[in-house]
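Late entry, evening session. Most of the bench is empty. Finally got around to the prediction I had been postponing all week. Sequence below, unchanged from the version circulated by S.P.
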Amino acid sequence: MSTLAENFNLANEFNILRIICGLFFIPHMFGKYIEREFTMGFFKSAGLNPPGLFINIALAAEAVISIGLIFGIYTSYVAWAAAAFMALAAVACYRVSSGKWFWNLGGFEYPVFWMICCIVVAMHG
């Protein structure tokens, strides 16, 4: 079986986790791009100034991370980068939400979960 076929073998549970971790960055990027004003306010509230610069850096990082995870390119390195990115996202959510945990209340629960999933991918990949 070719490497590309192996990377998309859904009978391998690791591939499912790796791919979903990568795919979830796509709506994350889309939201930043479509809701730019909201994102500018969020980044500013999190202390990431100038927000426009940080949004562009985030979009570039997310594009590289999503491609790497979806296609299994330098998986371990990209997954560690994704975990670091999600750790920063968790800190930003923590700052903006005043320490709320639950994601449905604006907290940082979801980025922490996603970060842990990326760590699992990095450790396996």
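Two things to note before I forget:
The helical segments are 3-7, 13-23, 25-34, 36-45, 51-71, 75-96, 109-124.
Residues 75-96 form the longest helix (22 residues).
Will write this up properly tomorrow.
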